[in-house]
Write a structure and sequence with these properties.
The structure is a single chain. By secondary structure, this protein is of the alpha+beta class. The chain contains two helices and six strands, in the order αβαβββββ.
Length: about 120
């Protein structure tokens, strides 16, 4: 189960940061690319299970999927890929290269009672 490994990694990173900030994590936001095979429900369930009994228990995880992008080889425009019409919105060209999918990233952690004054 890929999501369980991702959840474990997220919890470990959040706990490291919580120790540094001396605060209780209440919310986190992660993002991943459109092609990443993350199932939001399964990841949320795994996150809750791994968090149980830790400082992360009860925190909220928000998951954002970043759209796949391409670069038009004709006009150079970077655009979000629409699988129903894979054409450049600028010049209507069909010659493009897919850009790398966005990686899985822990973008934000919000803390309650953090020592550095930041949430």
């Amino acid at each position: 189960m890929h999501e369980a490994t991702v959840a474990q990694s997220l919890i470990e990173a959040i706990l490291r940061e919580a120790e540094t900030r001396r605060g209780r994590p209440v919310r986190a936001k992660m993002s991943c690319g459109e092609l990443n095979k993350i199932n939001d429900e399964v990841l949320s369930f795994a996150f809750e299970a791994v968090a149980k009994g830790t400082l992360c228990e009860g925190m909220t995880l928000r998951i954002e999927h970043k759209p796949l992008q391409a670069r038009c080889q004709t006009c150079g425009e970077v655009f979000v890929v629409d699988v129903s019409n894979i054409r450049c919105p600028g010049c209507e060209g069909g010659d493009f290269e897919l850009l790398p999918d966005a990686p899985l990233v822990l973008e934000e952690i919000e803390f309650e009672g953090a020592e550095d004054g930041e949430g």
